[in-house]
Design brief:
The strands form three sheets. This protein has an eight-stranded mixed sheet, covered by helices on one side. It has an eight-stranded mixed sheet with strand order 12-13-14-11-15-18-17-16, with helices on one face. The chain has two domains: 126 residues, 2,3-Dihydroxybiphenyl 1,2-Dioxygenase, domain 1; 117 residues, 2,3-Dihydroxybiphenyl 1,2-Dioxygenase, domain 1, CATH 3.10.180.10. The longest helix is centred in the first third of the chain and has 12 residues. It has 258 residues and is an alpha+beta fold. β17 and β18 form a beta hairpin. The protein is built from four helices and 18 strands.
């Protein structure tokens, strides 16, 4: 279990949020799947909703923004920065694209949305009152985040330049992947999409949620209107499955290996 109430180190995935057409429907799905309770926002902040485990912030939920009705339901991973403007400038210099420029989110912090050169979209978060995830690596909370694309070397060079990551190569035949490290500590992963992944699947960041029983959660997701993309399977890190919620957003669940 990881508990934190201060800003996360630069480059660490510090938050994730879900944008969906129907926020209330998402609350029902994920509340039923992970047992989250929710703190709903007000009209002033677009009813942005915080999901919690044991009273601690885990992720955010929000409805589709006006003018983005065609946008698919999707999770966004945010990487921590202590200087948003400096990091945004580094993104451009390294060949990335600033999708949404730096903006203040009231007193909560500052954010920007970025696309890396391989096409994966992620957010940047400079903490204010909101420091990000307050709990991780327990059932219902995030345990891992990774960037997957078809241009591994370009993506790896980009993240190394922008965040100064270390890379621990875990590649094997047919599998290209590195663990991202900050100060020698693992914070996430970066990999190449396997050849058998359909061409229409874009480069992306993906969040994994810890569960106590992957098979039971996969079955529950289907019961709640979601679907199973990849059936539960064992890995050295634990038992995994790839799922979608009932509005099409993709995520993974993992029962962590002891």
């Amino acid at each position: 279990m990881t508990v934190r109430d201060s800003a996360w180190p630069d480059g660490t995935p510090c938050w994730a949020d879900l944008m969906v057409p129907d926020r209330k429907k998402a609350m029902a799905f994920y509340g039923g799947l992970f047992g989250w309770d929710f703190a709903e926002g007000t009209e002033e902040n677009g009813f942005y909703t915080i999901a919690r485990v044991d009273g601690r912030n885990v992720v955010g939920l929000m409805g589709t923004m006006p003018g983005q009705d065609a946008a698919p339901a999707a999770w966004t991973v945010y990487l921590a920065t202590s200087d948003l403007d400096k990091t945004t400038a580094a993104v451009t210099e390294a060949g990335g694209q600033v999708v949404s420029p730096p903006m203040d989110v009231m007193t909560q912090g500052r954010m920007a949305v970025i696309a890396d050169p391989a096409g994966a979209v992620f957010g940047l978060w400079q903490a204010g009152d909101h420091t990000g995830m307050q709990i991780a690596n327990v059932p219902g909370a995030v345990s891992w985040n990774e960037s997957m694309s078809r241009d591994y070397e370009t993506a790896k060079a980009f993240y190394g330049k922008v965040f100064g990551y270390g890379f621990e190569d875990m590649s094997a035949p047919g599998f290209t992947y590195s663990v991202l490290t900050v100060g020698g500590e693992p914070v996430g992963g970066i990999g190449a999409l396997p050849d058998d992944v359909p061409a229409q699947v874009p480069a992306h960041w993906l969040s994994y949620f810890t569960v106590s029983d992957t098979d039971a959660v996969a079955a529950k997701a289907v019961e709640l209107g979601g679907s199973v993309i990849t059936e539960p399977f064992d890995s050295p890190q634990g038992r995994l499955a790839a799922l979608t919620d009932d509005q099409g957003a993709v995520f993974r669940v993992i029962t962590l290996a002891r």
